[in-house]
Amino acid sequence: MQAVVMAGGKGTRLFSVTKNEIPKPMVPLCGRPVLEHQIRCLGENGVTEVYLVTGHLGEAIEGYFGDGSRWGMEIHYIREDQPLGTAGVLGRLRGRVAGDFLLVFGDLVFDIDIRRFLEFHKGCRALCTLLVHPNSHPYDSDIVQTDGRGRVVKLLPKGKPRKGAYSNLVNSGLYMLSPCVLDGISGFEKMDMEKDIIAPMVESKGAVYGYKSTEYVRDIGTPERLGETAADIRCGIAAMKNLGRKQKCVFLDRDGTVNRYVGLLAGEDGLELEDGAAKAVRLLNASGCLAIIITNQPVVARGMCSIGTVKKIHKRLETMLGEEGAYVDDILFCPHHPDGGYPGEDARYKTACACRKPGTGMIDACVEKYNIDRGLSWMVGDTTVDIQTGKNAGMKSALVLTGEGGKDKKYDAAPDMIGGSLLEVVKKILGI
Length: 432
Description:
432 residues; alpha/beta; Spore Coat Polysaccharide Biosynthesis Protein SpsA, Chain A; Rossmann fold; 6-stranded parallel β-sheet; 21% strand
């Protein structure tokens, strides 16, 4: 497999580190340049040939990495004498890349399973696939909107006003590209990857997809982020989030656990976070644990609202968490209800299913998708249904005393832990 790394950045915001004496990708991070972290990850994932696009002080990069044999790969260089934006130089790769290739920006530190990324890209027959993920600051990030199959339908650039709520799905800066994308790039004109390449493809309904990943991808564009990334590497969080390794997950019930219980919630207006819930999720994010909401939503089967409305509620929930620097890695919901007799009920969803808690269908799907270790994971909720779900799934369970606080008494299931709130339970799980 081949990869292209855009390594020509000056790193203006990192001037206190670079002193304009080294190029941005050569900034030291835990004893080696940022670019070496990238090269090592590429090599571990089977990348055998890399094109480094250099510019400002490019000789420092070329002198350090040489022909790439030290890392068991071939490294070639394309010198950008004049800055051509984030995509302009790519046209010079025509005839050099033989198949789908990975495009990386030089200010990213990542530890991902690239093979999974490529498999998704090929499975979608995509021309361009963006690695997208939730982050702690979606309000100032480039948001990607996808349909149910992962196809990108809209881009919401940072810095532009946004109306309403949105899913916390951010463009990470990693791309899988078909070589035919290069055909429209001369290689000598300044172009922007998002604005001039991806956005027109999305608008023309081209095959642009979003590969959702929970893995570690972070830019080191400021001294603060550089320091935070170094801390994540030292404590092992960056490595543990690679989906090639088993993941620890805290599954969260929604109503009464993350947001206040108001009965059957059928619209955004009644949505309000539980006290301390955002802080609890932030702690999970910082620990490297996955945080995934799984929730029964019989409001659909009962005809109280549509699937679309439930998704809008979840977008609002993700937006509210994002405003407080927190994110969940995924949200799954069951729209079914087996019992009939409700006015206006939707017969399509009046059925017994494997996904409705205490069934484990939603958990099973996440275990497969995110390589989750059940033995290391928890189910947290405010009902005995949640506790029984955890037991059925082979995980530990914790009861929060918010919401229904276990008073539903539907199952004779004893939790492994009890806490007054989600924040209290999360602290106990994490041992803090």
